[in-house]
Amino acid sequence: DQQVKQNSPSLSVQEGRISILNCDYTNSMFDYFLWYKKYPAEGPTFLISISSIKDKNEDGRFTVFLNKSAKHLSLHIVPSQPGDSAVYFCAASELRGNLIFGKGTKLSVKP
Amino acid sequence: NAGVTQTPKFRILKIGQSMTLQCTQDMNHNYMYWYRQDPGMGLKLIYYSVGAGITDKGEVPNGYNVSRSTTEDFPLRLELAAPSQTSVYFCASSYGASNQPQHFGDGTRLSIL
Q: What is the pLDDT of residues A12-23, one digit of tens each?
């Protein structure tokens, strides 16, 4: 029973356009959400996070939106760059709980 | 600035063999974690530690053991390797609990044949 779902295994976007990666969750007790980025043969690296008390967090080209009523969050990358091509993992946790990861979405940004 | 270092990067084991995956961090983080990632899947927590001398089971602990004798080191032990343990193993650390971002090593790719 997946508590964190990334239903799109892959996404292809043209350079300069917006990339939108989606994530759904089932546990209403989750109060902290993170996005990680992973290149091949490397470990995941932290990208951006959001607390459940907020609905938006922005860091440069990356913005995460949280819709608690829909149990949905999304990561927007604007503008997309070829170096953004990677696998993106959504993760969630309850207060003082452990992280639960989604299966990941592979983003390909075409020049 | 090493961060989280895992050794070895690759290993092939025979069924029934044992081995220890090493993990060390130089960020003085209290929390450390072991995950496994199977193909096409997300990361699943095997064991974690909130400080030296304290360890606890995660979602998939069977077949593994850990110890945490120092803040820096968190080795993962496989006693009797099984084909189902073929996976990529990631070690991570964080300063605090789950609302602190975790820093990951580059992984150990383990094949059990």
A: 999 999 999 999
